[in-house]
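TOKENISED FOLD:
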Amino acid sequence: MLTEKDEATLINQPNALLADYHARVMIRDASDAICSFYEVNANKINGEVVVVRSKDDESKAANARNTYDKVLFVFSDQYWLTSYFSGVSQNIPLSKSLIKRALMMNKVA
């Protein structure tokens, strides 16, 4: 289960980077629990949130890349990340313990 501290981290880290005038940031290899967290809490992020779980979501992500000034991309661990996105987005590293708790949530669900 994600802790309150985990949830604060998942909100605060992107928001700190999105404080710049133009910013594209990403979380790569996100577990299903982290993807779902951002889908539910998108309104708490100071920019557009685009969760990319598969190739089907690429067009939505490409549109956001070319349209919005501030974007948080959340790339699923099931998606093969291309340089089209990684080349223009700053990676947000997550702690190993947060990733481990998120993975445990996937197994419980």
Notes: The beta strands are 23-30, 48-52, 70-76, 90-91.
